[in-house]
Amino acid sequence: MKKRFHQIELFIKYPHDVQEEWFKRLISAGSQTAWGKEYGYSEISNVEQFKSKVPVNDYDSLKPYIERLRNGEQYVLWNTEVKWFAKSSGTTSDKSKFIPVSNEALEECHFKGGKDMLSIYCSLYPETKLFSGKGLAMGGSHKISEINNEEFLVGDLSAIIIENLPYWAEFIRVPKKKLALHDKWEEKIEMMAKAAIPHKVTNISGVPSWTLLLLKHVLEITGKEDISQVWPELEVFFHGGVNFEPYQEQFKTLIRSGNMKYLETYNASEGFFGIQDSRDSKEMLLMLDYGIYYEFMPMEELGKDHPKTLRLDEVDLNTNYALIISTNGGLWRYMIGDTIQFTSLSPYKIKITGRTKNFINAVGEELIVDNAEKAITQAGKKHQAIVSEFTAAPVYFSKDDNAAHEWLIEFEKKPADLETYINDLDAALQSLNSDYEAKRYNDMVLRRPLVKSVPTGTFYNWMKQRGKLGGQNKVPRLSNNRKHVESILSMLDERQ
User: How wide is the angle at C-alpha 39 spanned by C-alphas 33 and 43, nearest 5°?
Assistant: First the structure.
């Protein structure tokens, strides 16, 4: 761990040199692929040439190449064999995305990220007893397909990682691999809870929403009121996938130990990008030596045919950027759909602010997920209310009314007065977003939010109905259309 810390200090000290070095290595590897030959990688010697030759891509533009890989062709996007595909939540045109995962991406990015997460945690808390017990990991599932007598693994990234962990990892994690990779989600939650209860669990990792479900099951089975009564040595939850802030109060009600710690990570099927490296701040260190070259697209460039992107040395603080990556898994100038802001430029630290498609901009209010989650947290604290899940969408102008935002909120603990809660939610949104505040002035463009408190289990049942149970699937927080909200309201009407 100390050796690794020296390497982390090097990329903190020389961030641009490290990124430049990785850029050259990626271009060299890519020049040996079908993609590299098509885009003239052998003639690329600098980043500006790369930008001029290679377009910014999303999943749909890379999909034909990924399909070739899935049909057994090799050396299409990366210069070594690709046998694993991380199944991720889909696009507008597909139910699922299949992200190629090379051996290099596993070793140099995902595994390295996991080890660094532990190294950083141990550095922050040298008194840790983390290794005296086991880690409970909320993994996904996978299946093996055979094409042209070759085996290919398709599944959640967490499942691919568990499948490829070294044998000794089985001794320090729970449950056993077979159960961790079980594909029937509701059965798996029950079985995982029962399997984990007898063990000395010191750490948990996973997506907050699904981890909460598991912890509630543990309490139901044991009849305890506090997870600390089940696992007294539990000391940390490593979480990622979604913003933790809206879930924090729920975790505090389930885990009442004053020693419990929470460490934020930024990992996705496409790569491992950031790790919280401070005790008292959730911002994450941007990890620069994982085989990923970063570009940052200003939000005003989104949707343009030839969008401008910035290098790491060109970014500003507190500005929203769409994240663009080129990776050792063969993703080239790939827009993963997340938006981030830099909170520090020395070292480079980031926070996730939302999704490029997860926002509401019906009347120019530019409401992003970061605004929504902070407002939910602020209103919750004021009313001692705890929100399990929520989603929001626009209500468009009608003959009789101005536009509004409609919120469907599932409360773990309801506010005593919903009307006052709505006022405070609205006030928080106005304080966080000046465009929203301007549109709310005297109700001239936007009316007060319409909030519907939905029954417990609504979002779980809706995700189940859509075949979206499991760690890689997240409740969409904001949408610029009414598809999700109408689908949930329709489901609730059918159940009445």
Answer: 95
Instruction: Please compute the mean of the pLDDT values over residues 118-124 and round it to a whole number.
Output: 92
Provide the CATH number for the domain around residue 31.
Answer: 3.40.50.12780
User: How far is 368 from 469, CA to CA, in rounded Å?
Assistant: 25
382: domain CATH number is 3.30.300
Q: Which of 308, 323, 356 is the last residue of a domain?
A: 356
pTM of the model: 0.80
Q: What is the mean pLDDT of the chain?
A: 90
Tokens read off for 495: 């159940």
349-360 per-position pLDDT tens digit: 999 888 777 788
CA distance 51 to 306: 10
Q: Which residues pair with 453 in a beta bridge?
A: 409
Please indicate, yes or no, whether residues 335 and 394 belong to a single structural domain of this protein.
Answer: no
Q: Do 315 and 434 sit in the same domain of this protein?
A: no
The range of the structural domain enclosing residue 404 comes to: 359-495
Q: Is the dihedral of CA 192, 193, 198, 204 positive or negative?
A: positive
Tell me which of 283 and 240 has the higher pLDDT.
283
Q: How many CB atoms lie within 10 A of CB 127?
A: 6
Amino acid at 4: R
Residues 6 or more apart in contact with residue 153 via CB below 8 angstroms = 83, 84, 85, 142, 143, 144, 145, 160, 163
Q: Report pLDDT digits (tens) over 332-386.
A: 999 998 899 999 999 999 998 887 777 888 887 878 888 999 999 999 999 999 9
**Tokens representing 105?**
């991406």
pLDDT of residue 95: 56
Q: What Rg, from alpha-carbon coordinates, does the chain have?
A: 23
Nearest to 367 by CA among 434, 444, 442: 434
Residues 6+ apart with CB under 8 A from 32: 75, 79
